[in-house]
Amino acid sequence: MDKKSETIKHINEKTYQEFFSYLMKGSRLKCCEIVNNQLKENIPVKQIYVQLFERALYEVGRLWEFNKISVATEHMCTAITESLMNFIYNKISMKDNCSKNVIISSVENEMHQVGGKMVADIYEIHGWNSFFLGANTPLNELIRFAREIVPDTIALSLSVYFHMEYLEKMIIKIREALPETKIIVGGQGFCHGGRSIAEKYDMVKYISSLDELEQFIAGNL
């Protein structure tokens, strides 16, 4: 699919509302049917990630923060979304490998990993070798792994604003250990502030969306 056709394909509001309703009810089968229909209509994976998964999970996160839903419901929605991403993964068309490496991890003490997994998939679509470490990887282990892989970029996902201090600690330690490695940061946690944290350190960039991530990737081939 060319870039022009990708930019004009969107998921309509009715489809999103149906998806969100089924997600909140815990109907993985219905959610999967909706996602599969979008794929059959050649909706790009990134659009499904952003317009269904990201939008729905941001709303789930907001409802959880305001005590409108339980932790169990939030976990259920997250688990269903991750299973849908696994369903999509085998259908993703990858570009030729560009011999670039990226390590993706959630911030230390952070238990959410869907955002990081989206970032990992987008990198793979663009031909990068993506090493996704998941949630709550100890900082020392991340640095040890990075010294083995020697990544071009390390991506850190923050879902909870109150974990910002852990993010800054990670940036400082990674910068000390791997001074030439680029670091990108992003995630729902930045909806409440903290975006200027990237400006305090060399070679650290805040990425606000998957569209901006693709632009960053294109500029770092």
From TrEMBL:
Gene Ontology biological process: homocysteine metabolic process; tetrahydrofolate metabolic process
Domain of life: Bacteria
GO molecular function, one term: methionine synthase activity
Keywords assigned by UniProt, alphabetized: Cobalt, Metal-binding
Keyword RNA-binding applies: no
Pfam hit, one: B12-binding
One Gene Ontology cellular component annotation held by this UniProt entry: cytosol
B12-binding domain sequence ranges: 99-221
PANTHER family, sorted: METHIONINE SYNTHASE
Protein name, entry field: Cobalamin (Vitamin B12)-binding domain-containing protein
